[in-house]
Design goal:
It contains eleven helices and seven strands. The protein has a seven-stranded mixed sheet with strand order 1-3-4-2-5-6-7, with helices on both faces. The longest helix is centred in the last third of the chain and has 18 residues. This is GTP-binding protein 8.
């Protein structure tokens, strides 16, 4: 159980250092996240809510263009999600198996989320960052684009399954479209598709393949902006505004809020864990 009185909105919590300190000492908070909560206020906000940092550079009349707080959990919610991603004896986080066809995929009845993106978008690096609280889980990361050739399945305790999909574009598997299209169309326990877009270059023509599949199959999906540590604040703001406009005007099934992340600085990683825990029914 969480300590009473700690379930406050994110902005209100930042104005109450004593409450943050109580949360960092709560038994419901992992040691790793307790250390995060002791960071200076501005550093903490940048780590947990990177879109809020982008908002600071917008004129007030432009802030309504961004959907910043549709999903705006408190640090207490994020602490609960971090525990879901923490490997313990009672919460095993493991690689399950790989498959090149849907009929070879493991029969896992728990909720499932998948990650899809262009080759070299940083997909495996992001999944490795999400699993950083389970260091024994091996997520292979290569400097060469197109390293992932199969669908890789990872179980997160009894909570849900994470699927690392092959990248599209450069060095994509020859049967990529058939493999991924069949999975997206037929996987009944798929709760959310996370479409990764490189924040340095924005949405590319090849990204439209995945977007069109999600839209055609009426799948709920989310755009995650990777590598935000490689963009200047001005460039990141430009990309966020362009991609947000695309989401607002060109999509039907995409979640309105963008999720910027860095697998290097871990900015946005805690928030993304929390969103995954939420859409799989683990924050109820």
């Amino acid at each position: 159980m969480v300590a009473p009185g700690l379930r406050l909105g994110a902005e209100r919590l930042f104005e109450m250092p004593a409450v943050l300190e109580r949360l960092s000492r709560s038994n419901s908070t992992s040691q790793a996240f307790a250390e995060v909560l002791r960071l200076p206020k501005q550093q903490l906000r940048k780590l947990l809510y990177p879109l809020h940092e982008v908002e600071r550079f917008l004129a007030p009349d432009r802030r309504q263009d961004l959907h910043l707080r549709i999903f705006d959990p408190s640090p207490e919610d994020i602490a609960r999600a971090d525990k879901v991603f923490t490997a313990t004896e009672g919460n095993r986080i493991d690689y399950v198996s790989s498959a090149v066809r849907i009929d070879h995929a493991p029969d896992l009845f728990r909720p499932e989320v998948c990650f899809i993106g262009r080759s070299n978008v940083g997909k495996s690096s992001l999944i490795k960052a999400l699993f950083s609280l389970a260091p024994e889980v091996e997520v292979r990361v290569s400097k060469k684009p197109g390293h992932t050739k199969k669908m890789n399945f990872f179980k997160v305790g009894k909570h849900f399954t994470v699927v690392d999909m092959p990248g599209y574009g450069y060095r994509a598997p020859e049967d990529f479209v058939d493999m991924v299209e069949t999975y997206l169309k037929e996987r009944r326990n798929l709760k959310r598709t996370f479409l990764l877009v490189d924040s340095v270059v924005g949405i590319q023509k090849t990204d439209n393949i995945a977007i069109e599949m999600c839209e055609e199959f009426a799948l709920p999906y989310v755009i995650v902006l990777t590598k935000i540590d490689k963009s200047s604040k001005g460039h990141l703001l430009k990309q966020v505004l362009q991609i947000q406009k695309f989401v607002n005007t060109k999509t039907q099934g995409c979640f309105p809020q963008l999720f910027p992340v860095s697998a290097v600085t871990f900015s946005g990683i805690h928030l993304l864990r929390c969103f995954i825990a939420s859409v799989t029914g683990n924050l109820d």
